[in-house]
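For this section, I looked closely at the sequence of one protein beside the tokens encoding its backbone, which the following lines show:
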Amino acid sequence: MKKFKIITIDGPASSGKTTVAKMIAQKFKVPLLESGALYRFVTYLLIKSEKSIQTYMENEDLLINFLKEAFQKVKIELTSEGTFIYWNGKLIKEELRKEEVENMVSQVSANKKIREFLTEIMRKLGKEDSLITEGRDMGSFVFPYADIKIFLTANEEIRVQRRLKEKMGKVIYKDKNLYEKVFNNIKFRDKLDSQREVAPLIIPEGAYIIDTSNLTPEEVLNEILKIIK
């Protein structure tokens, strides 16, 4: 088996990154860094703030000071089960999956200063022992020196179906146009991710590309294990 310190797993929304990353982390008993959890957490903090998100987006100094102050009260715990974020001693988990966070996280994560701030934090976390990371710019920007880079992809229809299954398993929706809503959201996120100024979604140099459209998570895992071995 190839020795590794960092394995990055990137890809667009609902390509299977988080599921497979957790499977790999658990198999090798190494910590998992979920970048999405950090961006959702920042989005959550901005929503809770007394000032509007737009106010922070328009004032870089105000935004940076807000982030620095907020993260003084943050503890990030990486385990093979995932990334756990504590704020003022409280685990912030379910809050990160609320619809208001879902609706804003792509716009928040496209902000240059926020990406730079969180990239620095993630690189510090990556200085520890072996690590599995997943996101949209892990192999291209955050950890370009990673030992193994994986890029997962899947066609839009499959990704929409996966997101619908995920949502329907957690929330009862009465919206008759849910499919169209999810489809448009994925298209919107893809556009923001691929066109943002800092660290856009691209295939990292030297990455192994796996199309997960017709593969189960177990089959994707096996493909990655072949690469690692």
Notes: The chain has one domain: 6-228. The chain has a mean pLDDT of 91. The domain at 6-228 is CATH 3.40.50.300 (Rossmann fold). DSSP finds ten helices and eight strands in the chain.
